[in-house]
Amino acid sequence: MKELMLGNKALARGLWEAGVAFVSSYPGTPSTEITEEAVKFNEIYCEWAPNEKVAMESAFGASLAGKRAFCGQKHVGLNVAADPLFTLSYTGINAGLVIVVADDAGMHSSQNEQDSRHYAIAAKVPMLEPADSAEALNFAKLAYEISEQFDTPVIIKMCTRVAHSQSVVETSERVEHSKTYEKNIAKYVMMPGNAKKRHPIVEERTKKLIEYAETTPINRVEFLTDELGIITSSTSYQYVKEVFGEGASVLKLGMINPLPVELIKNFASRVKKLVVVEELDPIIENHVKSLGLAVEGSELLPRIDEFSQNLVAERLGVRGQGSGVSLEDAIPPRPPVMCAGCPHRGLFYSLKKRKCTVLGDIGCYTLGAVPPLSTIELTLCMGASIGATHGFNKMLGKDSESKTVAVIGDSTFMHSGMTGLANVAYNQSNSTVIILDNSITGMTGHQQNPSTGLNIKGDPAGKIDLEALCRAMGIKRVRVVDPYNLKECDVAIKEELAAQEPSVIISRRPCALLKTVKHKPPLYVDKNKCIGCKSCMKIGCPAISMKDGKAVVDQTQCVGCEVCSQLCPKKAFAREA
Amino acid sequence: METKNIIIVGVGGQGSLLASKILGHLLLNEGFDVKVSEVHGMSQRGGSVITYVRFGDKVYSPVVDKGQADFIVSFEILETARWLSYLKADGQIVTNTQQIDPMPVITGAATYPENLVEKIRAQGIKIDAMDCLTLARQAGSQKAVNIVLLGRLSHYFDISETAWQNSLRANVPPKFLDINQRAFELGKKFV
Ligand SMILES: Cc1ncc(C[n+]2csc(CCOP(=O)(O)OP(=O)(O)O)c2C)c(N)n1
Questions:
Q1: Between 2.60.40.10, 3.40.50.620, 3.40.50.1010, 3.40.50.970, what CATH number should domain A344-508 receive?
Q2: Of A63, A81, A72, A102, which is closest to residue A12 (Cα–Cα)?
Q3: How far apart are CA A259 and CA A211, in angstroms?
């Protein structure tokens, strides 16, 4: 049957058709929907792991047990899972093991723009790169065949434009696959003596994979003219076809590690001019150059940001593209904001008021860095807030200890904040850590995590008690506050910063967008009482604006959290009786 | 047929995903090759969002670029202005006139430009500007803004009423079908 399908959903469908039995992932845009779609198939056991490293190790365990397994993550997630990956390349697999890494050229929703193809090269594992949903589905199935044929994990590299675009796919049925586990110390115990014997096997495998790359149908030549030949892959292929149509010959690479040699040489020999069109780093380009071929790429195309058809056309000198009209007015930007009723808001207001140095982390609360709150001073990678605060305080001592806090979300704390806190407890820095517990992984669209008590299906699951956990690590000062209560937040921050030992404040209130959260009716502003002092504007709530010198509340957005009313000197916020 | 391009723009959380789903379903059933591209994640949180819908005999790129959109379907008038450069010279705009202040306007760092519809029209651009919120409420739910917009868009397509209705039925929950059908009609009849 023909269907319009999101790239990520098509990939999940491919997993199902390939007979996958186990999926363990940690969410991250643009990879999250693969696992959210996979869980809809009864035949696949699915879970959210606390982080990508655990997810990959768990998926490997399932492969070892003889079942086809999968883990998915965004590009930076693979940094976290890099350790198991590099040695999985040595051990190989039992049943097929496929790993998705989803890059985000253009940084629609990420903290960097890394090109994950480097991982496939460095870890010496094959990598496939689909260019649309149909390929996402088919490459998923092919990846399991390659994995089992060559005894290796296989990475599929997605990107935002493939993961989050819908295109037409044809589906088929599921085929079951199973193997049995056999003890094999020489293959699976990677101590030096054994690993030394595995490394040559990896090198041999790469040679065989290059042979495979020469003939696999997913590396295909579309020969149309000898004037211009373009080597490309992924979404760049789509831009090239859009721009050139029949006007260029194309070598479309579906397998981007290892890269073929003869296929490329042969293609190059048939065209007068050779160009590589690839987003981010010049990986194919450098490979082509290493073969001694004349090729253009980096001279023409930028090495930052994502491409588009206009950009490819312009840079390859095809035609001037119309740029459309625009108005003379300055159009104010519309950056993302914390939602109305977001529990993070009250806490950040309190931190701002106390002029704290806030070393932050990644999640919805990163929006605490944008005006008018402008409170967060650091965002690096998941979990970094606590480590950074520890080092900062160790070096700056008392001055810093009395005003610096780490802020970290519940999911991020589970992901990689716990080890940071262990360091604070162990090496005794007088640091204050605030866990923003909104009882969900908010930023990526509401996934459960080990502290929420529910599993990926929303069914009851194990629940980590954050207070008990922090105490068990040796933090004696652990307290819980309600971020809707500004007074309570202020007192807690003041006291814990003054304390002469490490402390944890858990700011607890579920995300306002959760369906299970009951809201109070919206507030309105009594025009007779409002003096237009703008105190309520300091919290940056999208539901409050000024009209004719008075504050007004947008009734469609307000969820009645009452944080604004605590700031009003005239008690002008009220509720319809 | 040459590929046709639609962009759907608005503020994160306004319901553009349903509009693109209905369009995608409709166009596929009409026998076109279709691609729909959307943005998830960070910018969904009240930020400016854009969805691309492309259809024709064979569609390659999943995105629409500047100067290429045959239609801009917009949930908010500032967003219409923001994405104006994506419109083709003879393109058509179907827009809601609702204004949602972005944070820089709320904090006073920027001002919301005035009379945007008139200014766009003054450039000789074809624009249908409707108070979709009022029409949606009239239909029975303020959430039906997206369907009002689709109703108006349908006016420019050579696709049967039955086909549109089928796609509505296939993509909205049965208990909201009535409301959405009314919203579609109100949009379609708008002059
Ligand atoms: C290593 C890594 N994995 C995944 C992500 C994607 N990501 C960004 S923030 C986040 C979690 C946010 O959840 P939480 O800490 O609970 O904060 P909230 O958004 O709910 O406020 C995730 C999964 C990432 N940036 N880095």
A1: 3.40.50.970
A2: A72
A3: 9
pLDDT in tens, B46-95: 899 999 999 999 999 999 999 999 999 999 999 999 999 999 999 999 99
From A247's Cα to the closest Cα of chain B, the distance in A is: 15
Q: Does domain A2-215 have CATH number 3.30.1490.20?
A: no
Q: Is the pLDDT of residue B15 over 70?
A: yes
pLDDT < 70 positions in chain A: 320-322, 577
Contacts A–B by Cβ distance under 8 A:
189
- The whole-angstrom separation of Cα A265 and Cα A281 is 21
Residues 6+ apart with CB under 8 A from A548: none
Q: Domains in chain B, please, with CATH? A: 4-131+149-173 (3.40.920.10)
ipTM: 0.96
Global pTM reads 0.97
Amino acid A91: pLDDT: 98
Tell me what pLDDT residue A556 has: 85
Band (B44; pLDDT cuts 50, 70, 90): low
Mean pLDDT of B13-35: 93
- Domain A219-315, CATH number (from 3.10.270.10, 3.40.50.920, 3.40.50.300, 3.40.50.150): 3.40.50.920
Q: Which residues line ligand 1 (CB under 6 A)?
A: A 26-28, 74, 76-77, 80, 362-365, 382, 409-412, 436, 438, 440-444
Distance CA A571, CA A215 (A): 75
Looking at chain A, which residues constitute the CATH 3.40.50.970 domain(s)?
2-215, 344-508
| Contacts (Cβ under 8 Å, ≥6 apart) of A206 | A124, A258
Q: Burial letters for A194-233: b for 16+ Cβ neighbours within 10 Å, e otherwise?
A: beeebeeebeebbeebbebbeebebbeeeeeeeebbbbbb
Rounded to a whole number of angstroms, the distance from the CA of B127 to the nearest CA of chain A is 14
Tokens 């869980």, residue located: A39
* Chain B, nearest residue to A534 by Cα: B107
Class of domain A524-574: alpha beta
The pLDDT tens digits for B173-183 are 999 999 999 99
Whether B170 and chain A come into contact, CB under 8 Å, resolves to: no
> Least CB-CB distance to A321: which of B38, B66, B116?
B66
Output DSSP code: residue A178. Answer: -
How far is the centre of ligand 1, averaged over its atoms, from the C-alpha of A463 (Å)?
Answer: 19
Report chain A residues whose CB lies below 8 A from the CB of B35: 132, 165-167
